[in-house]
Every structure is written in structure tokens, then in C-alpha cells.
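Recall from the previous chapter that SMILES is a line notation for molecules. Here it describes S-adenosylmethionine.
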Amino acid sequence: MPRSDAITTTQSEGYEARVARQVPGLRDLHRMAGILLAERVPPSGRVLVLGAGGGLELRAFAQMRPDWRFDGVDPSADMLALARANLGDLQGRVAFHQAYIEEMPRILFDGATCLLTLHFLPRKARLDTLRELHRRLTAGAPLVVAPHSFSIHDRSGERWLARNAAFHGAEGRAPGEAMAQIDAMRKNLPALTPREDEELLAEAGFSDIELFYAGFSFRGWACHASRSA
Ligand SMILES: C[S@@+](CC[C@H](N)C(=O)[O-])C[C@H]1O[C@@H](n2cnc3c(N)ncnc32)[C@H](O)[C@@H]1O
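With both inputs in hand, we obtain:
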């Protein structure tokens, strides 16, 4: 990995192209998340972006809403450096925190997102993370999440892994490279099913849980922090 203070333009462009190749409708996912936040985040609101490394959703939200302020939280210094590079002049609107959510002060935010990140966390860590997010949101504030969500260990899971491989490889990527990534997903991704993900959001104290996005094995939900959890 490069030094965290020396991310080049080429590296940040490379990250963006790679994520766009892996996630169907990535730019629209960011736009939809911004719109869902805006239903409840007030002007001059403060938005927590968890798993903010890379900075792509931060950049999209900052461009959509010049009045909002952001806190970008991610445990990886390298990914935060990439976020800074991708944000360019917009990075002044973001407070970056190299941290896990439980290490963040208990400030109350007006909304939060956690995109393309929760699927890395096993069930218990995921529930704890969602609970910690809930503790940092004002009552009724929106949360937008978008993890891989599918039944990874049965035959339907194999179908979805193959479809992901085809999507990754669709723009001329070497099939072996895409397959290696799929093998890694099968071995390492503690994906939950959509029903389990929805149950976890409810268990963590979120309500009004609505599916707004489905792109192959990715699912996106918007929900609100219940007044008491
Ligand atoms: C696939 S990247 C997604 C980054 C960004 N949200 C995007 O959509 O491009 C996943 C990010 O989650 C971060 N991450 C891993 N474990 C995390 C955790 N427990 N809490 C918050 N972020 C985490 C990684 O460092 C990485 O930056």
C-alpha cells in the first residue's frame, strides 16, 4: 500500500473505476442515498459517513448539498488518505476520524450512511456497529446502508457469486482475476440474507426500514433511528 500521505491522482482514479466496476449503478446509489438523507437532514445538518474510506459517497453528498458538514469515519489510514485525494477541494467540509464507530464521541448527528461496508462485519460486530450508530443519531434521523446481502452459502449464493464475477469481468477484465475475487468473497464475506439484515437494523433500534436499491447481491435500505432503542 502507498504511504497514507502520498495518494496520487492515478491511484484515486483507479479506486473509483474499480468500485464502479464492482457495484452496479454506483453513482446512482450515491445520489439515491443523498436524496434519502435529504428527506430528514436539515440545512446545515451534520452527517456521519461510516466506512468513509475512498471518499466517493462523501464527494457525492458534498456536491449535492453544499450546506451540510460531514464526519468521515474509517479505521484505515490508507483509505482515509484516498478519501482526501478523491475529495480534493471538498475535503475542508469533512472532519476525518481514523476510528471505529465505538471510538467516536457521542455527538448527535442528523443522518448517517454506511455504504459497501457492513458485509465485512460478522453478525455480532455488525449489530454492535449499528447500535453504536444509533446512539449517535438524533431521534428520527435517517440511516442509509448498502451491503452485499444474499444467502452466500447455498446454491443461490453460488449463482450470485457467478453473476458478480460476470459483472466484474464484463469490461474485459481477465476472468481469472474476477474468479479469484469471487473465491475470496465465498471464503471471507460474512454476508447475511436480506431478511437477517433487516432484522438486525430493527434489533439495533431502526424503524421504517425500506428497501430502495438492489444491484445483483447488493441491497440498500433506508431507515430511521427510533426515538428509543
Ligand atoms: C469497500 S470500502 C467502501 C468505502 C466507501 N464506503 C465506498 O463506498 O467506496 C469498505 C471500507 O470499510 C472500512 N471498514 C472496515 N471495517 C470497518 C468497520 N468496522 N467500521 C467502519 N469502517 C470499516 C474499510 O477500511 C474500507 O474503507
